[in-house]
Amino acid sequence: MQVLLTERDQGWAVEIHACPDGTETWTRHATGLLTSRATDGDPHEAGSGAGEITAGGGAVFDGAWPPAGATAVDISDVYDAGMDTDVVYGPAFQGLTRAWTQGEDRVWAEVELPGTESAQAGTYGIHPALLDSVLHAAMFAGLDSAESTRLPFSFTDVVLAASGAARVRVCLTRTGSDEVSIAVADGTGAPVMTIGSLLVRPLPEGALGADPQDTVVLEPHWTDVRATGQAPRTDDWTVVGSSAGYADVADLSSAVSYGMPVPERVVLDVPHTPAPDSDSVVARVHEVTVWVLEQVQHWLGERRFDGTRLVVVTRGAVTTGEDDRLTDLPAAGVVGLVRSAQTENPDRITLVDLEPAADLDLGVLAQAVATGEPQVAVRRRGTHTALLAPRLTRDAGGLLPPADGLWHLDTAQKGTLEGLAFVPCPELAEPLAAGQVRIQVRAAGLNFRDVLNALGMYPGDAGPLGGEAAGVVTEVGPGVDDLCVGDRVMGIVPASFGPVADTDHRYVVPMPDGWTFTEAASVPIVFLTAYYGLVDLAGLLSGESLLVHAGAGGVGMAAIQLARHFG
User: Fold this and answer.
1) Where in the chain is the domain with CATH 3.10.129.110?
2) How does residue 383 score in pLDDT terms, banded at 50, 70 and 90?
3) What is the pLDDT of residue 22?
4) Where in the chain is the domain with CATH 3.40.50.11460?
5) CA 474 to CA 476: how far, in whole Å?
6) Of 276, 332, 371, 413, which is least surrounded by CB within 10 A?
7) What is the Cα–Cα distance from 116 to 431, expressed in whole angstroms?
């Protein structure tokens, strides 16, 4: 993705482009104009207090709520059956709680973030899920009906008056066949936001559908790159950390203070540690990474080096292919450290990895810098010196689910993760047995037991991969009266690594309100294991002491929470 900002007289023009297929063909997906204040004379500008916010030619929050003459709308099933079937809204986006209509072109609504998201509201101007839920009120505005799904297309005259809202009131006015204006206020009527015009457009048929065969699996590969410009001169480069240069950045800084010109490039030569013995490797990793951290922090803290690029040089710290081995573990830690510094300080640091026995050659480093890449590995390829940069590319041999039919992920051959395969499950189309429920799996928990199972290291018959999940009940078998189709459930679900799975209705429970499917799928096994150990086996009682080994693990954290619950 690329975001382009261009300064204009009235603000900043914004363009967003994306290149999803990894080629150099960029497609523009969005444009906009960003200003620090509303345009003078904007009829949709937010006022300064309660009762002053207007939209759509005069809709006013005047303190009466719900507004006089408004008719309540039943929204109890709006996120189940009332929305277009092409779009499914997750728990965080189901924020529309109440709605009223007034006349033929006005909708009033209340929108609230769920508990798990409301805690994050203060970190946004307006929380994305809250804004999305505000727009859901448009379904009652009498816009042109169409068989295809209609989604927001363009926003005009958007004014944000307050930030951090978690619960708001909404006034939406239809101003055209496919256009509305929106005013948003807090519980007192004080302005939060106005949208002068929101246009909706039909979504092309199948635009949200994904063909499993088109699933893109990406893997990192090192690709030979060419320099985008002429290699810079090296006569104004300075080396730090090598016997040929300064001992450290502090030493270099002192020299600059005494009159030495600020160098164009500073090369930080990381000490090479070839294959230390196992007793000293951890200490050496700490020693080298701490030293590099001190150098980078010192360099970033010196304002005089703001225009200087830092070139961090390691040797044998990355692997670029099957015939390339990592030979310097401490330097590998440096690579991770520097990559983090690069994200915080873009275009100021270049990371270059040389071959283990390579001498420091400023000419080669200049060629690496000229590529414009943030990370480059220099490797000999016959008589050619290759400059390699990491790229995410399609993995032609990756696992792709079948285009049709029911399946789950399992092992065709145990002993290695290469033995994973998609196994057909025609039995999932057969009628359910008594006491069974069929679940559309939305998230499945990956347990260490599954790893041992796939590697053939689990004692006895481990059964199929996957043992816990969260999803939606799509069918119930005879004798099941505590669950219904449409219920959101979590629990023990064998063979859960697939789109559909069957389980005993006694093994699942309704998901708590506000939980995501991901959160729910991570709970069953660890908490049941901890509960069985503490209650059924140990008989833990209030007031007793508990020692938890590996309290940071899944079962350990569950045990600590249960122990606190028991007192």
Assistant:
1) 43-202
2) confident
3) 52
4) 224-393
5) 7
6) 413
7) 37
Q: Do residues 168 and 130 lie in contact, with contact meaning Cβ atoms separated by under 8 Å?
A: yes
Residues contacting 518, CB < 8 A, separation 6+ = 443, 470
- The residues, ordered by sequence, that sit 6+ positions from 255 with a Cβ below 8 Å of its Cβ are 246
Q: Rounded to an integer, what distance in angstroms lies between the CA atom of residue 410 and that of residue 398?
A: 15
Residue type at 359? Answer: D
> Which token pair is 545?
């002491």
43-202 CATH pick, 2.40.30.40, 3.10.129.110, 3.40.50.1820, 3.40.50.300: 3.10.129.110
CB 299 within 8 A of CB 249: yes
| Conformation bin of residue 415: beta by default, left when phi > 0, alpha when psi is -120 to 50 | left
557-566 — which CB contacts under 8 Å span 24+ positions? 557/526, 558/523, 558/526, 558/527, 558/529, 558/530, 558/531, 559/530, 559/533, 559/534, 562/527, 562/530, 562/531, 562/534, 563/534, 566/534, 566/540, 566/541, 566/542
Distance CA 195, CA 189 (A): 16
Radius of gyration over every alpha carbon of the chain, rounded to an integer in angstroms = 30
Q: Residues spanned by CATH 3.90.180.10 within the chain?
A: 407-513
Burial of 542 (0-12, 13-18, 19+ CB in 10 A): exposed
Distance of alpha carbon 478 from alpha carbon 492, whole angstroms: 20
- DSSP characters for 224-268? E---SSPPPP-TTEEEESSTTSBSSHHHHHHHHHTTPPPPSEEEE
Report the largest interatomic distance among the alpha carbons of the chain, rounded to a whole angstrom.
88
CA atoms within 13 A of residue 127's CA, in its CB half-sphere: 25
Angstrom distances, CA of residue 499 to CA of 247, 451, 509: 59, 20, 19
Mean pLDDT computed over every residue of the chain:
85
| 407-513: CATH topology | Quinone Oxidoreductase; Chain A, domain 1 (3.90.180)
**Hey, what are 37's tokens?**
């204040």
Q: What is the pTM of this model?
A: 0.43
Q: How far apart are CA 326 and CA 338, in angstroms?
A: 17
As a residue count, the chain comes to 567
**pLDDT tens, position by position, 47-90:** 333 334 554 434 457 667 888 889 999 988 888 744 545 677 88
